[in-house]
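tokens incoming
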């Protein structure tokens, strides 16, 4: 007899990371696979960041600053907020887990649109919380009226990924303001902006546009995507100082390691260079979207570093056809596949492979008829 986990843990779906290229190669007996499955940055960290990481590595026998004071200060300065409004965590998923630990008790309701980021149900169930979801619109976007109607006095937390993973659609701060106006200020509203740097600036900035008026809002962001530091795990949150102080209590000791802290500061210093890289990803995204439109695809508005193909029942067939040809994407069975914007060569390969597969013509005619 072995010890059994808490029922909430036994019932948990395991988090499914994107499949790696090597794994796909082994499974399909192929070589030269590319991974477009985890919304990673196609480029390694820039030289100044690598140098900062190497420098910090020399001090790895010491614990890091638990509170990551220097990182918080630099983020606050960068965003133009007071440093009491900022905290950091082990990736934004680390911060999301802290938010659930801080605010969601057994039996509390957590509301979010679905399909969205896969950790939300995992964390809700881990806390013994009750999930309440609202469906996406026909455009694969969030329906904020339906969401507002679903929120009640039992709702402790609302979680909104903007842009949404996996559909890529984003919310404007004007829409968010209307939603927040009708939400009880005792309900925490998390705005998960992991892909913030890829969004059209016309959508607004929740930190600038919303935080002053809505002290129940927490914005989470990350260095994983635009800054290319996914492997180091550093994310940050901006909110009212009382919320930040509460969230901080759940940060496990030294969660943001010394290399991650050094890299985050170097990334803020290198923001001009990083902006150039982001611009390249955005121009690649425009190119991929245009090519898909030309090929007859109707896809949701892409505001992050990926595109979403709403394939419905054809999802697994398409996903497998691509993967057998060495293009690894992220499938959501029965719904669609998410494809990360990679380097120009990788994107060309994805487009050519998609074109080459026979199901495409069939699918195109199906969506054209619908
Ligand atoms: C919506 C969303 N939030 C958060 C994250 C996690 O990012 P991090 O690497 O900062 O934990 C992701 C990563 O895929 C995401 O899609």
């Amino acid at each position: 007899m072995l010890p059994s986990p808490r029922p909430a843990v036994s019932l948990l779906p395991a988090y499914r990371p994107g499949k790696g290229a090597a794994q796909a190669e082994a499974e399909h007996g192929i070589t030269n696979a590319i991974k477009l499955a985890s919304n990673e940055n196609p480029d390694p960290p820039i030289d100044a960041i690598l140098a900062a990481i190497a420098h910090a590595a020399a001090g790895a026998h010491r614990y890091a600053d638990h509170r990551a004071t220097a990182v918080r200060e630099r983020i606050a300065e960068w965003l133009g907020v007071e440093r009491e409004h900022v905290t950091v965590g082990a990736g934004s998923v680390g911060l999301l887990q802290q938010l659930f630990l801080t605010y969601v008790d057994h039996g509390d309701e957590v509301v979010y649109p679905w399909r969205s980021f896969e950790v939300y149900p995992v964390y809700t169930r881990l806390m013994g919380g009750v999930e309440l979801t609202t469906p996406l619109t026909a455009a694969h976007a969030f329906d904020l009226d339906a969401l507002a109607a679903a929120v009640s006095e039992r709702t402790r937390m609302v979680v909104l990924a903007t842009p949404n993973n996996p559909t890529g659609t984003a919310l404007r701060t004007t829409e968010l303001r209307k939603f927040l106006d009708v939400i009880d200020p005792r309900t925490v509203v998390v705005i998960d902006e992991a892909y913030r740097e890829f969004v059209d600036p016309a959508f607004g900035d929740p930190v600038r546009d919303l935080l002053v008026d809505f002290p129940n809002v927490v914005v989470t962001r990350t260095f994983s995507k635009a800054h290319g530091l996914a492997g180091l795990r550093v994310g940050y949150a901006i909110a009212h100082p009382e919320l930040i102080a509460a969230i901080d209590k759940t940060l496990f000791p030294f969660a943001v390691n010394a290399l991650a802290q050094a890299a985050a500061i170097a990334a803020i210093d290198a923001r001009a260079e990083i902006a150039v890289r982001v611009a390249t990803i955005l121009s690649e995204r425009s190119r991929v979207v245009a090519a898909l439109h030309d090929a007859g695809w109707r896809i949701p508005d892409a505001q992050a570093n990926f595109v979403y193909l709403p394939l419905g029942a054809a999802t697994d067939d398409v996903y497998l056809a691509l993967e057998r040809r060495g293009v690894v994407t992220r499938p959501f069975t029965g719904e669609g596949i998410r494809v990360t914007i990679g380097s120009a060569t990788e994107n060309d390969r994805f487009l050519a492979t998609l074109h080459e597969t026979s199901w495409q013509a069939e699918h195109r005619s199906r969506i054209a008829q619908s």
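note: Residues 39, 91-93, 117, 161, 165, 192, 194, 222, 224, 230, 235 surround pyridoxal-5'-phosphate (CB under 6 Å).
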